[in-house]
Design brief:
28% of the residues lie in helices and 36% in strands. It is α+β, with helices and mostly antiparallel strands.
């Protein structure tokens, strides 16, 4: 009888101990996966990453001028704006509309091309980006004509282009600030004076500056 009672008490104690252990361990099983959801390669920083593959198209525009006039052999720094949200394959916004992309127009065989270097998100995050536009080969010959006057009205011109224009115009005093600055807005200026001409590339800032990623882009976004 005593042996049976002892066995019963021992069994009950074992079950109680097991119950306590199970109660103690159960929350750990539930909590651990929830904590792991916030793990990231940056340690305690709660970031998630979005990858855009090479070949992704980024619509962009330059809003500061009606057109850009540049000599074929000239480079011109430029900052363009992203015109629509760029989504990952999972539907997440990787590059929000309104983000800025810094780069420059660079000589390319047959014309010029915009080459991107820095992506600046609306929150100020800056990262490297490797992307470029198609080659822009639309050319015009500037001379003392109404067409040339129309091309230059409201245009952004590079420093070398401004020097060429000043040679055609014969008004170096008017053009000196643009040439010295390396770029400037030329609005409503009429050609006149010397008879000459110069070949330039005409960039449409609304349609010619769309970019294509030349390598994968990994964007880190804070949760």
């Amino acid at each position: 009888m005593l042996n049976s009672l002892s066995c019963w008490r021992s069994g009950t104690a074992a079950l109680l101990a097991l119950g306590i252990c199970t109660t103690t361990l159960a929350p750990m099983v539930v909590i651990a996966p929830a904590t792991a959801q916030f793990e990231s390669p940056l340690g305690r920083d709660r970031n998630w990453f979005v990858r855009l593959p090479v070949g992704t198209t980024i619509p962009a525009t330059y809003r500061g001028a009606e057109r850009i006039v540049i000599k074929p052999e000239e480079s011109l720094p430029l900052t363009v704006s992203v015109t629509e949200d760029i989504l990952s394959r999972q539907g997440r916004v990787a590059i929000p509309r309104g983000s800025k992309i810094e780069g420059q127009l660079e000589p390319e065989q047959g014309g010029t091309r915009f080459v991107a270097r820095d992506l600046i998100l609306p929150d100020g995050t800056t990262m490297d980006i490797f992307a470029s536009s198609d080659v822009i080969s639309r050319k015009e010959t500037l001379n003392n004509s109404a067409r040339s006057r129309a091309i230059l009205t409201g245009a952004l011109v590079g420093g070398a282009t401004a020097t060429v224009i000043s040679a055609i115009v014969g008004e170096l005093g008017v053009m000196k600030s643009l040439a010295g600055a390396g770029a400037g807005a030329l609005g409503g200026f009429l050609l006149g004076g010397r008879r000459s001409n110069a070949e330039v590339v005409i960039v449409d800032p609304k349609t010619d500056l769309n970019l294509t990623l030349d390598s994968d882009l990994r964007v880190a976004r804070v949760i």
